[in-house]
Known about the structure:
This protein is of the alpha+beta class. It has helices at 2-28, 34-110; strands at 115-124, 133-135, 148-150, 155-162, 167-171, 178-183, 191-196, 204-211, 221-224, 236-246, 251-258, 267-272. It has two domains: 1-110, no CATH class; 115-272, Thrombin, subunit H (Beta Barrel). The chain has two helices and twelve strands, in the order ααββββββββββββ. Residues 1-8 and 30-43 have low confidence and may be disordered.
Amino acid sequence: MKLFKNKLAVTVIVLSVAFLGIIIYTVNSDSKGALSSGAGSTINPLQKVVYSISDKVKETLDFFLNFSEVKDENKELTKENIELKNKLLEYDKLKEENDRLREVLNFTDSKSSYEYIGCEIIGYSGESYTQGYVINKGENHGLKKGMVVVADKGLVGQVTSTGSNWAIVESLLNENIAVSVMVSSTRETTGILEGYVTRSNDGLTKVTNLPVNSAIKEGDVILTSGLGQIYPKEVRIGEVVSVETDDIRVMKTAIVKPYVDFSNLEDLFVIIPTETREVKYEN
């Protein structure tokens, strides 16, 4: 068997050399005699077979060489695609942060007499965000109980407890928080906003103590009134979604959806009044 393989290999080599010689001879011959022409005519079918085999071998070699190159290019393109996706995600993240900061800056420009400390939420003070947040700044950063906390969309709540490097913020959704508010369209300042707990926990608040003849309506914007110097004046809170009349207590109650999404907060800002011995906000 080994001898057969060796003979076969030698035969293939000899035939290949012979075919190659025939091809070279045929190409280099510009003109031949009648005998040569006859020989050429006889050999032509053999040349076609040789050319055909050569083309197939060349195509096969080209395929494998190109396949290797394409495979390498595909790996490179996949790597570049991943890098582009990562850059796009980073861009989207930076854009969102920029938009949030722009919203905050719009607020800080209108309240330039205050200082603002940025902080991050590191946990909940209870079982969920409705009970409050734990932030990563505290007394070492100038925070005190009673200070107001905002986000890019509006009012979040108030600092209710502090440590050296942490503080607890109770949100507007908590029934323990009460905020003096006014209706932007009517400028009424008698309303008191507090948390509004429902079975579905929709993250709503309600404004009570509105006069029964109040012109408040669905779609009105609710702002802080500044009364009591607990909250700065005209901080955005939310939008009225419904109005109810209490004929027994002779007043109106408005259900308000806050602008802040309390389930999806990231960055908060504590408003620091100029005089911090007593936490009071000038209006």
